[in-house]
Design brief:
- α1 crosses α2.
- Helices cover 44% and strands 23% of the residues.
- The chain is of the alpha/beta class and 312 residues long.
- It folds into three domains: 87 residues, Arc Repressor Mutant, subunit A, CATH 1.10.10; 114 residues, Periplasmic binding protein-like II (D-Maltodextrin-Binding Protein, domain 2), CATH 3.40.190.10; 92 residues, Periplasmic binding protein-like II (D-Maltodextrin-Binding Protein, domain 2, 3-Layer(aba) Sandwich), CATH 3.40.190.
- The model has no long low-confidence stretch (mean pLDDT 89).
- It starts with a helix and ends in an 8-residue tail after the last helix.
- The strands form four sheets. Strands 4-3-5-13-6 form a five-stranded mixed β-sheet, with helices on both faces.
């Protein structure tokens, strides 16, 4: 039996007229009558009868009508599903813009971009560094749909509300904390942790433009030995030469050149979680994202899985 016949039958019942149903189906009335006669013969059932109210279904015909509606609805749902499969099978392509703080690139983005290039050559990643922690407004201004940054844990709720107000998704990726970064040559480098007394004897280096972290950590170190430098690269070189220590996020700097090559180590402060923070992903709503953007977001989420021991 053809689904076409079921669709014809449903239209006849709902129109209560062969003539009206034929118009809606864009076929001739004799062709529709012939099709319904054929359906009744195939089923060996009397499905329709004429009355002063027009064409109406018999008792069995009414039950058959409901079954037809159910079958046609199910087929329509399956057709939508199959069409979605065909879209998924298409290789993602297009430009994907990402806004991120600088440390994110050495942490996951550089490797991620290379891997995506190999797996999805039709996707072009256009990334831009932003030297600020809260960049929700910048995402809006630059019309970028993906952003990666960090914030203090205490700021998370506020940022989520701001993102919601801007019709953006806010997704926490993993928790992090600030540690003391020091040269392997430092006297305290062999210790597992630092005491507050140890920190008070150490000279510290901070970013001269930093108005967020520096004020929160300066009291921990020797107040008479604070150095100010213009870039993080200069800071790491300064630390590697054992001139001072610095404070940076633990997980965010796992892949830092100076850490990986053994010039610098990082230490936690005993009995203290220093400036607990969170890595977060900001994205536009799903209906605003291209298939390429969705693919990149999935890859970012997967890249973070090894770091999600505390919070995801």
């Amino acid at each position: 039996m053809k689904l076409e016949l079921l669709m014809y039958f449903v239209q006849v019942v709902e129109s209560r007229s062969f003539t009206q149903a034929a118009k809606k189906l864009f076929i001739t009335q004799p062709a529709l009558t012939m099709a319904m006669n054929s359906l009744e013969e195939d089923m060996n059932l009397k499905l329709l009868k004429r009355s002063n109210k027009g064409v109406i279904p018999t008792t069995i015909g009414l039950e058959f009508y409901h079954d037809c509606k159910e079958i046609l609805h199910l087929m329509a749902e399956k057709e939508k599903k199959w069409k979605n499969f065909s879209q998924i099978d298409e290789e993602p392509a297009g430009n994907v813009h990402i806004l991120a703080i600088s440390a994110m690139f050495s942490f996951i983005l550089n490797d991620l971009i290379i891997a995506l290039k190999k797996q999805y050559p039709k996707i072009t990643i256009i990334s831009r560094e932003l030297y600020q922690f809260d960049f929700l407004s910048e995402l809006q201004i630059s019309n970028t749909n993906i952003g990666l940054s960090v914030c203090f844990l205490e700021e998370q709720e506020s940022l989520m509300q701001k993102a919601k107000a801007l019709n953006l998704n806010f997704e926490p990726l993993c928790e992090d904390q600030y540690n003391v970064f020091m040269s392997r040559q430092n006297f305290y480098a062999k210790q597992k942790e630092l005491s507050q007394k140890d920190c008070a004897e150490l000279a510290a280096v901070v970013l001269s433009s930093d108005k967020i972290i520096a004020p929160k950590i300066k009291h921990l170190f020797n107040p008479n030995k604070t150095y100010y430098l213009g870039s993080k690269d200069n800071m790491f070189q300064f630390i590697a030469k054992n001139n001072a220590v610095g404070v940076f996020l633990e997980k965010l700097h796992y892949n830092n050149y100076w850490i990986e090559n053994g010039f610098i180590c990082q230490k936690r402060i005993k009995n203290q979680t220093l400036l607990p923070s969170i890595h977060y992903l900001i994205t536009a709503k799903d209906n605003s994202l291209s298939s390429a953007e969705k693919m990149v977001i999935q890859q970012i989420q997967r890249s973070y899985e090894p770091y999600c021991t505390n919070h995801c």
